[in-house]
Amino acid sequence: MNDSTTRFTNRADNYARYRPGYPIAVIEYLQQKIGLHAGMDVADIGAGTGISSELFLKNGNTVYAVEPNDAMRAKATALLQHYPGFQPVKGTAEATQLEDGSMDIVFAGQAFHWFNQEEAKTEFKRIAKRDGYVLLMWNIRKLNTGFAREYENLLATYGTGYTPSRRDVAAEDMNTAFFSPCRYEKVIFENSQELGYETIKGRLLSTSFMPSEADINCAPMIARLEDMFGRYEKDGRVSFDYITTLFIAKAHC
Asked: Is residue 153 part of a domain?
């Protein structure tokens, strides 16, 4: 995972506070589709500060939150240690440190695009039970408002190596290869939020490819964000809409 294991070290606080979560409808769907219940063990790979881990913890699951970055894992522990099922693990997608055939569900969220795909695929199969599942899920911003389109341009202007919608450009091909020879199901959930300025600013600063607060480009970036927000806000908030995309496949087929 090279530098992806350290790139969020100085952004853990903003990441935990401002990154978008996932709709509870995901859990309700999994309960119906694969029989998700509280007795299932879940591996959350690249767990970060535990945003996706908490979704399963609230369902009563034991969650092994596998995260290589010490700062992110420490933040997850501080936020989630009150859940009896929370188990932080120092590991990577390619070497989780989990036992063979131990997980009912192997889950990966936004961190998936940082993984070595072939090595992670092998590792996911190793730790999944014979009747286990692999789930991938992430949020993709809609470009359905003037603010959303200007925000996308802001990312393209100031982001290092960012290209618009980079995470979903080849998602289908990538997922087909990752799940092969197993077939997968793709499910879409609406995930809309009304956000104030400080939350949007924090979300921007939590993004790994954007300038940090110490960067010379941060001040003009924030000034542009403030101007955008001022032009689009209504009652101190703007709509921030996502599509949450969930992929479901058997770990072994």
From this structure: no
d(CA 6, CA 184) in angstroms, rounded, equals 31
Please give the average pLDDT of every successive group of 10 residues along the chain, which has 253 residues. 45 58 95 98 96 96 97 94 98 98 96 92 98 95 92 90 56 77 95 90 83 88 96 94 94 95
CA distance linking residue 114 with residue 97, whole number of Å: 18
- The DSSP code for 212 is P
Domain hosting 78: range is: 2-142+163-193+241-250
The answer to whether 14 and 34 are in contact (CB under 8 A) is no
**Residue 99 DSSP class:** P
Do residues 66 and 46 touch, judged by C-beta distance below 8 A? Answer: yes
Among the listed residues 109, 165, 160, 120, the one whose alpha carbon sits nearest the alpha carbon of residue 141: 165
The total of structural domains in the chain comes to 1
